[in-house]
Amino acid sequence: MNREFSDTDARAASARFRPLDGLLVLAVEQAVAAPLCTSRLADAGATVIKIERPEGDFARRYDEAALGDSSYFAWINHGKQSVVLDFKAPEDAAWLHRMLAKADVFVQNLAPGAMQRAGFGSDALRERYSRLITCDISGYGDGEALAGMKAYDLLVQAESGLISVSGAPGAPGRIGVSLCDIGAGVTAHAGVLEALLQRGITGRGSGLAVSLFDVAAEWMSVPLVHAETGSGAPPPVGLKHPSIAPYGAFADRDARLTLISIQNEREWLRLCEHVLRRPDLPLDTRFMSNLARVAHRDALDEQIESETRLLDGATLHERLRDASIAFGALNDVDALAGHPALRRRSVSNSSGSPVSLPAHPVQLRELKRDSPVRELRVAHTGHDGVSGQDQAGWRTGHRCVPRLGEHTEALRRAFD
């Protein structure tokens, strides 16, 4: 009996399925960018098969902070299935083709040209498998000029100019996380989702290419415009904003720093009157507009900090809240660990030990935390060798970091 699919039906379905349930993703990946992309797909329900060399993804050995596993590897590889193969060998190449024939997405971030030389170039794959979506992640794209250049995160930060606008005056510094890798990974993830939507309309897959440099360069749009058609690119300014004042870190009585952000003249007046108790400051011609305040930033900051240093942190924050002024404490990582806004999830590392990670940043409100997750294509096998599926073909959402090659034999049987 036909009937309309009601809102109640939709809520019930979304509570039982994740958005990408039933999709198969193959990944020849290493380090951070591609694994982050595919981890997002896995979090959304896709089955992700991670194809590794016999020595494994080198990110497995970056550190041992995750109770013996690399912190990087545990973060962006839990919930995947690991196989070891040599796709240059005929038998393994044939096996990879059998998997590709059933795959929806293929992601790789080897050196430019490596997959083509092995016979698995993206154009050829899409010609052979018309519904396949391919995503090639590189450092500098596939142009000949920089094709052979190594493109690790810090190097791309330097080449793209990110470092030139970061850090303190006279001491530019690396951004403290692998930002270019992360940016390329989440950009690739967005591209794959767009390609999946397009395939739903056209029935055909498409090819995507994302480079770390392109992502970093796009982020540098504002400094680049200032450099080319403005008054020059902003120099490193430490804990200050290059074009807004006051917007920076100010010490309290105990020398703890609080970042204060003023976005308009109304907020500037409230800061002076209700927080600093200095209604005279807006009358100073040096501080009567944002442009004037930026031009006289040193004098402005000195006036502000002469008042904040009279207050303990709790009083300063209370005044800022009461005046509806944006602020943030300059926390360290230990403070992050106890932050009231921090959500967490637990994964099992490759030896089965629980590791606590920040939660996925996208919350699926309709999906209950303990809802079963549909596992299609290949059954998951836990580290104890027991199938993770129950009799109904479902498994819970607890996710494990795969041991190197853990699923090789099971997947060989599944794709025979």
Question: What would your notes on this structure say?
Answer:
The chain is of the alpha/beta class. The chain folds into 2 domains: 7-219 and 343-414, Rossmann fold (3-Layer(aba) Sandwich); 247-329, formyl-coa transferase, domain 3 (2-Layer Sandwich), CATH 3.30.1540. Helix content is 36%, strand content 14%. The chain has 16 helices and 14 strands. The chain has helices spanning 7-14, 33-43, 71-77, 90-102, 114-117, 122-128, 153-159, 179-202, 212-219, 221-229, 265-275, 290-295, 297-308, 313-322, 333-337, 408-414, and strands at 24-28, 47-52, 81-84, 105-108, 133-138, 207-211, 247-251, 257-261, 326-329, 344-348, 354-358, 373-374, 394-395, 399-400. The strands form 4 sheets. It has a 6-stranded parallel sheet, sandwiched between helices. The chain has a 3-stranded antiparallel sheet with strand order 7-8-9, with helices on one face. The two termini are 39 Å apart. The model is unreliable at 1-5 and 370-397 (pLDDT under 50).
Mean pLDDT: 88
CATH topology of the largest domain: Rossmann fold
- CATH architecture of the largest domain, please? 3-Layer(aba) Sandwich
Q: Could you give the count of β-strands?
A: 14
Q: Percent helix among the residues?
A: 25-40%
In percent terms, what proportion of residues is strand? 5-15%
**What is the chains' assembly state?**
single chain
SS-based class: alpha/beta
Strand order of the main beta sheet, please?
3-2-1-4-5-6
What's the total helix number?
16
